Amino acid sequence: MVDDVRATGSPRARPGRWRTGEESRRRILAAARTSFARLGYDRATVRHIAANARVDPSMVYYFFATKSRLFAAAMALPVDPAERVAALLDGGVDDLGPRIVEHFLSVWDDTGGFEPMFGLMRSPPADERSAGTLREFVQREIVGQLRRVIGGEDAQLRAELAGAHLMGLALARYIVAIEPLASAAPETVAAWVGPVLQHYFTGPTPGSG
Amino acid sequence: MVDDVRATGSPRARPGRWRTGEESRRRILAAARTSFARLGYDRATVRHIAANARVDPSMVYYFFATKSRLFAAAMALPVDPAERVAALLDGGVDDLGPRIVEHFLSVWDDTGGFEPMFGLMRSPPADERSAGTLREFVQREIVGQLRRVIGGEDAQLRAELAGAHLMGLALARYIVAIEPLASAAPETVAAWVGPVLQHYFTGPTPGSG
User: Min CA distance, A47 vs chain B (Å)?
Assistant: First the structure.
């Protein structure tokens, strides 16, 4: 594959030399990491990242299709969480809790999971900006989708309580690795946590009846 | 307060000068941080920490009473989580879920909370030892207490699922600070999460009936 000729303005490009697609892809990822870290998820537009990488925005879409997939690749996540949530939501909300837990555990167990996301969770003031980037990504790409499917006034809070539980599960099982939770069968963990997430998605609001 | 004369072997002590209690306390805390980081929570004994601080072990107990309180002080936690759990468990297990959530939220809201503990949760391999120290502290001082009160074969897993949920709640509400969860009234959050923790403590084991 041959790079866009406009990219030869790069200081590293030599006259008469075409960058390969792999080189462009690496430049885009490096620019994305810098832009997301400096500007957060929302303000780091694809146009801005493309300019920093000295490529045309269409090349960013060619390689990564969506901004969330670019973010996932820049963070070295094994999958794009936003895409996975979208796929799970295609199955409706009725047994979303169990399905989401099972999927979440299988991604972690198979791939080492979303550990890089936890690198963004440094406590402020140590790295306030990274937490902001993560917050914007989760809010825009994950909570937003869930909220629309859950519906109702407290849909966003419900989605966030479920997400908070999953984050804590990942911390305890995979990062702190506390036993017996770390070694429990995925089915055992899912049998406990799935109905709890389902309660957050579709259970009655506390005090409502 | 006047220091133990044996501590004057310190390279910083000048002949004829007695260290103040505050100096000894600082030396103990510094030694504790080093020992916990190098050896983990279990292997960093009070005797070992006292030797590193060049004080008598009795002085460690004089200042900190228990190893868990020393750990909390060394980590700059606002309270010793192990003591708080012990106090909450005095009220029995029947409404432990709501009480533990309310207390947890009030400590975070009032003091900035347990953020330093999250500093220990760096993903391996970045800082495997810190995660190990946290794991040992949580396992020995917190899960151990809960397990005895919950009882039954899966008591430890139940305690860890509840703890995982609380950890995730703290991450989402205080560190990532996602809205509306970050600004929700403590009573609203407790009304959602309290019954879930109670379910983990005393609800039926999944598939058991």
Answer: 26
